[in-house]
Amino acid sequence: MKQSEILNTVTRYLLIFLFTYTGISKLIDHDNFYTSILLSPFIHNHAVIIAWLIPVVELLIVALLLSNKYRQTGLVSSLILMIVFTVYIAYMILFIKYLPCSCGGVIKELSWSNHILFNSFFILLISVSLLFTTQHHLFIAINRTSRKPV
Amino acid sequence: MKKYLGIFVVMLALTASAFTVNHKDAKVVGNSYSYNLYGQPGQDNTSNLNNPANYTLVSPLSCPAGAAHRCGVINATDDGTGHPDFTKSYTIKARN
Fold first, then answer.
1. Domain coverage including residue A48
2. CA–CA separation, B69 vs B39, rounded Å?
3. Which of B10, B12, B21 sits opposite A25 (nearest CB)?
4. Which of A18, A134, B48, B69 lies deepest, with the highest CB count within 10 Å?
5. Which pTM does this prediction carry?
6. Which residues, 6+ apart, have CB-to-CB distance to A105 below 8 Å?
7. What mean pLDDT do residues B37-44 have?
């Protein structure tokens, strides 16, 4: 179980760093982030809301990950958010002829394709971390009900 | 110690983002391009805004006074044909 704890810890702190960085960057450079959303073909009508919602959600996830009680909720929320981002990027690459700048705050040197790889890495990391956590909880639950010493 | 590690990681991310923003506000590097459709019908159309062919290399970029519409981009990389490469970072200029 110790390896899974290390993985969970590393995943958690990587996500805390990533979402703090992206959330704060988007808030500091709000005008550019808002402009880049305006250029997106299917979400530009809600640009005002989305431009504030995304960084706030990211920082909220950071708060969940920092908390011991809601750590699991933070991981699941991170996974959902990363999947949403990845689907959006994939859609843009596949269906949009002229791509707007992907410089919405973080890692703006990454191309759209590299961004998918970057997001996929985190999706995999979070998924494995959640899987280990679930197995650990099942292990404890099974042994608790069996009344056998572990 | 472990209790404060989360706070340390947050501070590290805040510092990193601060350096990123400073970098963006540095003096203009790269090319400036004027948006050809400024002031014309369809100027705010997404496909027009994202089409590099609608931009002309200029030096420096001088945006005329007017409404809050895009008039050009700066800090852009050329795509080899005299138009901006929108797959790399750039800064939008709009005029109020």
1. 2-146
2. 8
3. B21
4. A18
5. 0.67
6. A22, A25, A26, A29, A33, A55, B17, B20
7. 84
The per-residue pLDDT for A58 is: 95
Q: Which residues of chain A make contact with B46, given a CB cutoff of 8 A?
A: 38-41, 44
Mutate to test the interface with B, among A32, A40, A98, A107 (most CBs of B within 10 A): A98
Bridge-partner residues for B55, per DSSP?
B35
Report which secondary-structure segment, H or E, holds A119. helix A112-146
**B69-76 vs B91-95, strand pairing mode:** antiparallel
pLDDT digits (tens, 9 = 90+) for A41-65: 677 778 889 989 999 999 999 999 9
Average pLDDT on A102-118 reads 67
Residues of chain B with C-beta less than 8 angstroms from the C-beta of A100: 49-50, 86
DSSP per-residue string spanning B26-66:
SSP-SEEEEETTTTSTTTT-HHHHT-GGGEEEESS--PPS-
- Are A64 and A71 in contact by the 8 Å Cβ rule? The answer is yes
